[in-house]
Design goal:
With 344 residues, this protein is α/β, with parallel strands linked by helices. Among the domains are: 131 residues, Rossmann fold (3-Layer(aba) Sandwich), CATH 3.40.50; 101 residues, Beta-Lactamase (2-Layer Sandwich). A five-stranded parallel sheet has the order 2-1-3-4-5, with helices on both faces. A hairpin with a 5-residue loop joins strand 8 and strand 9. The protein is elongated, with a radius of gyration of 47 Å. The N and C termini lie far apart (126 Å).
Length: 344
Amino acid sequence: MKAIMRVLFVEDSEDHVMLVLDHLRHHGFDPVHERVETAPDLAAALKRKVWDVVISDYSMPQFNGAAALKIFRDSRLDIPFICVSGSLGEERAVEMMLAGAHDYIMKGNLSRLGPSITRELLAAQSRREHRRMQKAAAHLAAVVESSDDAIIGKTLTGIITSWNKAAERIYGYTAEDMVGQYASILLPPSRKSEFNETLEKIRRGEHVTWFDTIRVRKDGTPVEVSVTISPIAGPTGETIGASTIARDITERRREEAERLKLIEDLTEALAHAKTLRSLLPICASCKKIRDDHGYWQQLEVYFKQNEHIDFSHGICPECTIKLYPEFADHNHPQTGDVKTAVAK
């Protein structure tokens, strides 16, 4: 299936256009075209449609190739502009190339046109891809620089190749300090083995997921960080380095400690409150109880309000003997029915 190619001709001769189209079809293209021959028509056509290539004559009654090239350059389109002329001298051809034309072809040598267009289309595609990659790289660099996490690039031997602003803030070292240094400088002596173990995993293409660890700042103070390390793949998929993302968890640790302290304080306060609640001040004389608000209440009133206990009244055997000796059954002191005796 032939590749469709959208061609804008700047040409005053329809016959010449047909000649070029035949050549393009023979070369494997399926051209869709439009022809213009004035400056306003060219400017309008460049804005109105998307084109793959512009093919321009040099000498025309109302226009010329140099003026057409200027309008094309002002449009800032990155597509091939090829001058095809029957009267273009070598000097003018050089001028057109210096002014920005991608190639010039003599109408008597159209065999060069197909290969020229193919080459220039590939070159334009390569330029667009390069710009896209540059834009993506710039965007990625902006993301890395604006991140609150330290993002560090390393070789497979542990040498630092990139160092973002957050890494500088967390560790205190600048990029100038660290690029070219071994990342092991950040590890305390007790964790040096962690460095080699991690690099070995990365060489095998393994990811090291988030784990909490300790690093050392430039001033020698420790900093708690949560770290993840990922292998960096090269063009053919092989591992060529590692990317480390480190998150300062000092604040998180402080908040966790505060929460634990609060829980401990609340637990202690609750236990103390329960202890206080179990200590009931009671009058040694009248036996009233002081409640939590400081009021003194009858024993039965307090328990009824706080423990939901209802009381019935009676007299124990000892009190019966003491208060009502004439009604007491001295033979059965534990079962005397005082209420019945009194009632009688």
